[in-house]
């Protein structure tokens, strides 16, 4: 494990990575809306949905080269059938780490890479007509995500934020980024 950590550190230093707007204890908060692709196996077919994902993230600059944070994502979508409606809800919470790529960044534009480890909570509600409402609650295994993001600053403390992530909880998100210092 030490070998991989040292390799990652050396590669990061080589690429000239730097944390987002380093000021000791600087906190950056992002709120946005994104999308994710969900697949659901129906009675006789595979159904694909592209629901909205509501995201909130908070990152704190640990050093000039690294920031840590937490993130939350909420998704809800419905599948309407002839006799029933199925409602899917998912909450994903995770820990994130980000490195700003100094080579492509400036005062007005920041490009960064990161990763997120999280856990998902699912709720599925089925309302059959006629019949009782069936309610299922489940947790998903640990989720991993790699993301590429950018902040385009409007002023010194506010930016428009874009992130592209794979595999989930979102593959695209757009929002506002605000830093405290």
Secondary structure layout:
Elements: H1 2-15, E1 17-18, E2 27-35, E3 38-41, E4 46-49, E5 52-63, E6 66-80, E7 84-101, E8 109-128, E9 133-153, E10 158-167, E11 172-179
Antiparallel strand pairs: 1-7, 2-5, 2-11, 3-4, 5-6, 6-7, 7-8, 8-9, 9-10, 10-11
Helical segment tally?
Answer: 1
With strands numbered from the N-terminus, the spatial order across the biggest sheet is: 2-5-6-7-8-9-10-11
Question: What structural class is derived from the secondary structure elements?
Answer: mainly beta
Give the total of beta strands: 11
* Computed CA radius of gyration, to the nearest angstrom: 19 Å
Calculate the mean pLDDT score and round it.
Answer: 80
Low-pLDDT ranges: 1-22
Structure in words:
It is a single chain. The chain is mainly beta and 181 residues long. The chain is 8% helix and 68% strand. The protein is built from one helix and eleven strands. An eight-stranded antiparallel β-barrel has the order 2-5-6-7-8-9-10-11. The longest helix is centred in the N-terminal third of the chain and has 14 residues, at 2-15. The two termini are 35 Å apart. The model is unreliable at 1-22 (pLDDT under 50).
